[in-house]
């Protein structure tokens, strides 16, 4: 019995990849970078990227390597990939509502579209994904359904993250009902509520 | 074309269907081609649009209209907060004008990048054998060139 356990432990030890690429996917302004920053601050003591109320603030894939998660004595090494927000339409006029000039807005629009393409290309290279959904918004969107469907088609493990539960309009049951077949963790990335639960879920699913 | 079930007004755009008819109805009937009267009704008040659903020359009562093969009722939810669904033709990214892009996510996930610009010119990014690994910076730069 002990020998079996030892053999299994050794097998897992030597067959394990050095680090798991964990991608954060989702629509714009759902809190992906806030969550990435929270994870990096909790596990490494330093943030990952800038956060803004203007959509498409993250327009290139932000990467933090060797983020080590230790849960119940298990160490899980991850490369955290904060993806640009995925959208089906990018319109520079939306950015002008936030005070950007037409020229700046058009540049941002072009970079945002490039970011979407980059995020989609990275789907082939992630080992697991956290799909972040704004719990205050309707989860039945083309973006969420397409991302979830493609992750599943590629056999990539998915953990759904219903974010912004600190807001009164949050409705996590709606998210749960939309994607009942996936593990879901309800969190607030901004306040850190339920983050230990998310870490436990990541460790249990990906270790 | 779609016509309002209640007043018979012709609806020409999806936006009009989303917001509902001027008469307050949100139920529209799809008809192939022109209705027998040959008249195309324009947007306006229900009064201007003419008589109510009796204008449809289907020869059946309104209650049975949805059973007709050439008629299909479309109900628009009151909230009209439907997701913006984008399904493009052979391209997967379309530049409608400078700074306005539409992305067909499904096609982008399965096909090489094909961009259609605002002058109807197609740009195709051919996948190379060296692209099989992790996305390289050169690949991203090529994407940027295509989007630019």
Can you put this structure into words, describing what you see?
The complex is a heterodimer of chains A (207) and B (148). Chain A is of the alpha/beta class and 207 residues long. In chain A, 41% of the residues lie in helices and 22% in strands. Chain A contains seven helices and seven strands. Chain A starts with a helix and ends with a helix. Chain B is an alpha+beta fold and 148 residues long. Chain B folds into two domains: 2-75, no CATH class; 93-147, no CATH class. The longest helix of chain B has 11 residues, at 137-147. Residues 34-80 and 136-141 of chain B have low confidence and may be disordered. Chain A binds chain B through residues 60-61, 86-93, 102, 105-106, 109-110, 113-114, 116-118, 120-123, 125, 138, 140-143, 146-147, 150, and chain B through 81, 83-86, 93, 98-106, 108-109, 113, 133-135, 139-140, 143-144, 147-148. Strand 4 of chain A pairs antiparallel with strand 6 of chain B.
| Major beta sheet, strand line-up of chain B | 2-1-3-4
Overall, the morphology of chain A is globular
Binned strand content of chain B = 15-25%
Q: Would you tell me the structural class of the helices and strands of chain B? A: alpha+beta
What count of domains describes the coordinates of chain A? 1
Helicity of chain B, in percent? 10-25%
Tell me which oligomeric state these chains represent: heterodimer
């Amino acid at each position: 019995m002990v020998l079996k356990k030892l053999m299994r432990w050794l097998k897992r030890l030597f067959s394990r990849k050095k680090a798991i690429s964990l991608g954060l996917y989702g629509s714009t302004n759902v809190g992906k970078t806030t969550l990435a920053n929270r994870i990096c601050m909790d596990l490494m003591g330093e943030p990952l990227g800038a956060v803004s109320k203007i959509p498409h603030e993250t327009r290139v894939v932000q990467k933090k390597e060797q983020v080590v998660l230790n849960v119940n004595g298990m160490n899980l090494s991850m490369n955290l990939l904060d993806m640009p927000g995925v959208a089906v339409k990018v319109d520079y006029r939306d950015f002008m509502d936030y005070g950007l000039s037409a020229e700046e807005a058009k540049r941002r629009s072009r970079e945002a579209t490039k970011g979407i393409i980059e995020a989609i290309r990275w789907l082939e290279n992630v080992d697991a994904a956290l799909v972040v959904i704004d719990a205050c918004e309707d989860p039945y969107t083309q973006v969420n359904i397409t991302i979830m469907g493609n992750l599943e088609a590629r056999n990539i493990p998915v953990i759904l993250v219903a974010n912004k539960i600190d807001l009164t309009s949050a409705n996590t049951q709606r998210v749960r009902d939309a994607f009942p077949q996936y593990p879901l963790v309800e969190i607030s990335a901004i306040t850190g509520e339920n983050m230990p639960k998310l870490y436990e879920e990541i460790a249990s699913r990906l270790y | 074309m779609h016509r309002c079930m209640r007043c018979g007004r012709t609806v020409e755009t999806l936006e009009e269907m989303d917001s509902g008819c001027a008469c307050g109805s949100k139920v529209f009937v799809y008809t192939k081609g022109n209705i027998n009267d040959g008249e195309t009704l324009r947007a306006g008040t229900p009064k201007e649009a003419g008589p109510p659903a009796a204008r449809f020359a289907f020869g059946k009562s309104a209650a049975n209209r949805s059973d007709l093969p050439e008629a299909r009722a479309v109900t628009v939810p009151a909230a009209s907060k439907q997701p913006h669904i984008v399904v493009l033709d052979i391209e997967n990214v379309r530049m409608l004008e400078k700074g306005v892009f539409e992305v067909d996510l499904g096609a982008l996930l399965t096909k090489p990048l094909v961009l259609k610009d605002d002058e109807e010119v197609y740009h195709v990014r051919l996948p190379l054998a060296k692209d099989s690994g992790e996305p390289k910076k050169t690949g991203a730069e090529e994407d940027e060139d295509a989007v630019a």
